[in-house]
Specification:
Elements (H helix, E strand, L loop, with lengths): L5 H19 L5 H27 L3 H53 L2 E5 L2 E5 L1 H15 L3 H14 L6 H14 L3 H13 L7 H14 L3 H14 L4 H13 L1
Antiparallel strand pairs: 1-2
């Protein structure tokens, strides 16, 4: 019977270890590398035990025992390689899940980041939620849902008082009340445009709406006052030209 030498056994172990090392090289996770190192240590311990047996036994029975031990070692190495493959698969799944998580997080962050928008010819930064809410509210107005628009616009100016859309939202809120025939609320809403948002280009139209609301309330005195202020302050505006025509009809 062939006698196994230490050098031959080392070759056998080297052949078994090479695929193990190749599998481990696929992993870059710290915990996986630690697990692989632990498994290698276990294989090394088995190898040392076999080498000790080689040094201490030389009869045929010992050689047969050594061959059996070698077979068990190969089976153990195969089992350990299987564990490494399982670890590699789990790490791959975890990495894919992490990438998906990062992509989802990035998408959520973008929904919260300010974006540039052009409002009345001016470039401003607005939150995506501002833009969506404002467009939804004005779409209600344009569709003729004045009650729904009034509610949505009132909610908008409450939530986003400093928004680049706030002056416009306040103006359309006044128009929604006007369309509903609630002229007192229309006046109150448009007066906020002329004071809180005095720099807005919607101010002349807001003043015209105030004058028209007073006229429909049969309050000629305040109607004339509002229209005259409009003509005086914004003489070149299209709203001032309309105001002049309405002043003539109020005489």
């Amino acid at each position: 019977m062939m006698k196994l030498t230490t050098s031959r056994l080392a070759c056998l172990f080297l052949a078994a270890w090479m695929p193990l090392q190749a599998s481990a090289g696929l992993l870059d996770d710290d915990e996986a590398r630690k697990a692989i190192l632990d498994l290698r240590a276990k294989v090394d311990a088995i190898a040392r035990e076999l080498n000790t047996r080689i040094d201490s036994k030389s009869d045929k029975t010992a050689q047969l025992d050594l061959l059996n031990q070698h077979e068990q070692t190969m089976q153990e190495i195969s089992r350990l390689r299987g564990q490494i493959e399982v670890l590699a698969n789990e790490i791959s799944k975890a990495q894919n899940s992490q990438k998906q998580l990062y992509a989802d997080l990035d998408s959520r962050i973008k929904r919260l980041e300010p974006q540039q928008a052009t409002v009345d010819g001016q470039v401003a930064e607005v939150l995506p939620a501002e833009k969506t809410s404002y467009e939804a509210a004005t779409a209600m107005f344009q569709s003729g849902d004045y009650k729904g628009a009034a509610t949505a616009l009132q909610d908008f100016v409450r939530r986003f008082p400093d928004s680049a859309y706030a002056a416009n939202a306040q103006y359309w809120l006044g128009n929604a009340h006007f369309a509903l025939g609630d002229y007192k609320k229309a006046i109150a809403a448009q007066e906020i445009v002329t004071t809180t948002y005095a720099g807005s280009n919607k101010v002349p139209d807001a003043m015209l709406n105030i004058g028209s609301s007073y006229a429909l309330l049969k309050d000629s005195k305040n109607a004339k006052k509002a229209l005259q202020q409009l003509v005086s302050k914004y003489p070149e505006s299209s709203a001032a030209k309309t105001a002049k025509d309405r002043l003539a009809s109020l005489k």
